[in-house]
Amino acid sequence: MFIDSHCHLDFPEFQHRLPEVLANMKSAKVTHALCVSVDIPDFPKVLKLAQDHPHLYASVGVHPDYEDTPEPSVEFLVEMAKTHSKIIAIGETGLDYYRMGDRSYESLEWQRNRFRIHIRAALEAKKPLIIHTRSASEDTIKILKSEGADAIGGVMHCFTESLDVAKQAMEMGFFISFSGIVTFKSAKELQETCKQVPLERMLIETDSPYLAPIPYRGKTNEPAWVSKVGQFIADLKGITAEELATVTTSNFFQCFQLNREFN
After folding, report:
1. Among residues 81, 132, 163, 221, which is most buried (max CB within 10 A)?
2. 0.90 exceeded by the pTM?
3. Is residue 96 part of a domain?
4. 177 CB contacts (<8 Å, ≥6 apart)?
């Protein structure tokens, strides 16, 4: 049994396919999925998915790559997390300097401020963080440390950074989540990192509708295909897919402070 620890089932790609996508999950023995929030306007759709389906969960937060969108407050994030039992995490949040271009470092202070707000909300709400970091690992780790995120932990989602970054995150209590990227032929360095991350600190995800794993690369990704990520990592580590599934499922429930009850 696999769990997709990060997907976006509220996105337009799934608008007319949700029954099919959920059926595919069941067929692939993917028992649960976490639907992750990326902005405040679309958050109600994320929450409704979780409320309507016992095996789906939700987070609340604003993605660091969404600039022209309402800013969250600590109060709002905490209220949502405490009011709705299906919200199990704060995020996704973090830093993304990938599209920085000619912009100055100072001009991205809004990202760092938004990140701090999410961390403070997570600490107050006692909910783990979902961290997105791209071309910004040094600042991401620095802010996590300075804000005391080790007191709550969470997950480094869709991990593509170095083993050193993974180790620093794990030292703060974070899990490392691998997506379909790890299956790509070009991802040799990431595959080596994946080999070194202890199984007991690992999660798997799709980040669907993006980043479909081999052999589906280029297609619209979906939670069922997290099983392909799991199988690839199991082969990489020289273990069975069943062992990989058992441990990452246990890790999911531990990370997000959930009872081990399957719906």
Report:
1. 221
2. yes
3. yes
4. 5, 6, 155, 156, 157, 158, 159, 202, 203, 204, 205
CATH number, residue 39: 3.20.20.140
Number of domains in the chain: 1
Question: Rounded to the nearest 5°, which phi and psi values hold at 178?
Answer: -110, 140
The answer as to whether 182 is a domain residue is yes
The residue to which tokens 């995150």 are assigned: 169
pLDDT tens for 58-71 read: 999 999 999 999 99
Q: Is residue 215 part of a domain?
A: yes
The rounded distance, in Å, linking the Cα atoms of 124 and 18 is 34
Q: Is residue 263 part of a domain?
A: no
Q: What is the 3 state secondary structure string of 76-125?
A: HHHHHHHHCCCEEEEEEEEEECCCCCCCCCHHHHHHHHHHHHHHHHHHHH
Report d(CA 207, CA 35) in Å as an integer: 9
Three-state DSSP class for residue 58: strand
Over the stretch 116-157, which tens digit does the pLDDT of each residue have?
Answer: 999 999 999 999 999 999 999 999 999 999 999 999 999 999
Q: In the numeric block, which tokens belong to residue 214?
A: 């081999």
How many CA atoms, within 13 angstroms, populate the side-chain half-sphere of residue 257?
14
Strand partners for 158: none
> In the predicted model, what is the mean pLDDT of residues 167-185?
98
Residue 215 CA to residue 228 CA, distance in Å, equals: 8
Distance (Å, whole) CA 260 – CA 57: 14
Note the pLDDT of residue 141: 98
